[in-house]
Specification:
CATH architecture of the domain at 324-469: 2-Layer Sandwich
Helix content: 40-55%
Largest sheet: 5 strands, mixed
CATH class of the domain at 324-469: Alpha Beta
Order of helices and strands: HHEEHEEHEEHHEEHHEHEEHEEHEE
Strand order of the largest sheet: 10-12-13-15-14
CATH topology of the domain at 324-469: Heat Shock Protein 90
Structural class: alpha+beta
Distance between the termini: 47 Å
Number of strands: 15
Radius of gyration: 52 Å
Strand content: 15-25%
Length: about 475
């Protein structure tokens, strides 16, 4: 398992390093392409300046023809005008009728083109003949601007698209307006607060790339690790959690099988004990009948019969282990009092055994043989803890949240806090010859058979206090 976790973590680390290298190369390529776009813009500006100069010289040529200096030869200037192949020109007469058009784009209204030209550059008017010349930037210069804008748009699109699986956001200089984005939740883009939180998280993973685009100003490119890389980073942790869950489930299954096996041993031993007691019990009953016929004192026979009845109860208890007992709604105080009366002459004379009930009419579903068994075990344990000298008080009261509460308290040395959770486990005992099954059996009878709860409470005086809630 540890080898698998180490290998998974190492694989995720290597993939992350490889992807980070690719992203680093991608970011360097963006910076270099941005520099290339800037350099291209500089070339376009130089070409534009040359084209603008040609347009200015062409306009000067028209002005010279309109108002030539005295004695100047206009042949060269006329040839220069007719050699124009790039600058669009419109010439109208005094009646605003088109005389000539040169280098004008096809499919464009001449009126709208004239309006654009007059807005961009002052028309040249020939006063003597009433002609007006409209002109604009050269066709090549306009194409250069369109190409430059297409280059910038292509750079922005390819920057985002070529990011592959990496989430990318390109913002303006204020970092509030998103220009383009890829592999990012669109709902976060439209929410200013979510956007800033997203940008902060990306900046925490990787420093944003600053790009200056001609005519567009400063831009910032934010990017983060890919979704696959993020998943791989947490894969070892998820694998560890799954292994822990699998181990826990396997432990629960093993514990369940072990508990079931223990239950089978319990049930088998109990039923075998009940079976083994049946034979001598029948023999004792026969001997009592024989003694009655021989005229033995009746008080002796009465005590013997009480013990025989008790043995029958013990056999009945053992025979019920492993099967669901039938619970009947009975008077709890009556069942407790019968048990206390039975135990009182069978404990040390130095032990004061009392029973107090706040309400002697409380009802609860009980199996009298099994419930009495629990009380007997608790009383015997209390007698042993006090070495046969002290007080045992059995109480009965109503629980505020519902149900009844039975308490068994003694004046013995008490149970340490560190042992209070262990005493109900099978095998726990403080007696040299004890088996450690009494309290475990009490817990099983109360919680599994009666649906109640048994625990160790805090005693008001020195000693132990067991709580049984039904």
């Amino acid at each position: 398992m540890l080898v698998t976790l180490w290998y998974s973590n190492d694989m995720a680390r290597r993939i992350r390093e490889e992807e980070q290298n690719k992203v680093h190369l991608w970011s360097e390529a963006i910076v270099q392409r941005a520099e290339l776009v800037g350099y291209t813009q500089q070339l376009f500006e130089e070409l534009g300046t040359e084209e603008r100069g040609k347009a200015d010289r062409l306009a000067d040529a028209y002005r010279l023809i309109n108002d030539p200096p005295r004695g100047m030869d206009l042949t060269f200037i006329t040839d220069y005008l007719w050699s124009n192949k790039t600058i669009p020109v419109l010439i109208y007469d005094g009646n605003d009728e088109l005389l000539y058009q040169v280098n004008t784009p096809a499919g464009v209204s001449l009126d709208s083109l004239k309006g654009v030209m007059s807005a961009a550059n002052d028309p040249i008017v020939f006063n003597d003949v009433g002609h007006t010349v409209y002109w604009d930037e050269s066709v090549r210069f306009s194409e250069l601007k369109d190409v430059m804008q297409d280059l910038i748009n292509s750079f922005i699109s390819e920057t985002v698209i070529n990011s592959a699986s990496v989430p990318v956001i390109m913002t303006d200089s204020s970092r509030t307006e998103v220009i383009r984005y890829q592999r990012v939740d669109s709902t976060a883009i439209g929410d200013a607060q979510k956007l800033q939180s997203l940008l902060t998280g990306m900046a925490g993973s990787n420093d944003p790339i600053e790009v200056n685009l001609p005519g567009e100003g400063r831009h910032y490119i934010y990017y983060a690790d890919s979704v696959i890389l993020t998943q791989l980073r947490y894969y070892p942790l998820a694998q560890l959690v799954l292994i822990a869950v699998f181990t826990f489930v396997a432990y629960l299954i093993f514990s369940s099988f072990r508990r079931a096996e223990q239950d089978q041993v319990w049930v088998g031993m109990a039923k075998e004990t009940a079976h083994q007691l049946g034979t001598p019990l029948s023999s004792l009953m026969a001997w009592v009948s024989l003694l009655e016929d021989q005229g033995v004192r009746s008080d002796y026979l009465t005590e013997m019969n009480r013990d025989i009845v008790r043995l029958n109860t013990v056999v009945d208890r053992f025979s019920k282990i492993g099967s669901k007992p039938i619970l009947k709604e009975l008077n709890v105080a009556a069942v407790i009092e019968a048990t206390v009366e039975y135990m009182r002459p069978r404990v040390s004379k130095n032990v004061e055994l009392t029973f107090e009930a706040s309400d002697r009419d409380l009802q609860a579903p009980l199996s009298p043989p099994l419930f009495s068994w629990v009380l007997e075990n608790l009383i015997r344990n209390a007698v042993d803890a006090m070495d046969g000298d002290g007080k045992i008080q059995v109480g009965l009261e109503v629980v505020p949240e519902g149900g009844v509460l039975v308490t068994v308290a003694d004046t013995g040395p008490g149970i340490p806090k560190s042992k209070r959770k262990e005493i109900f486990q099978p095998g726990y005992t403080t007696k040299p010859r004890g088996w450690g099954l009494g309290l475990s059996l009490c817990k099983r009878i109360i919680e599994e058979y009666h649906g109640g709860r048994i625990s160790v409470g805090v005693s008001e005086v020195l000693g132990s206090r067991f709580l049984i809630q039904l």
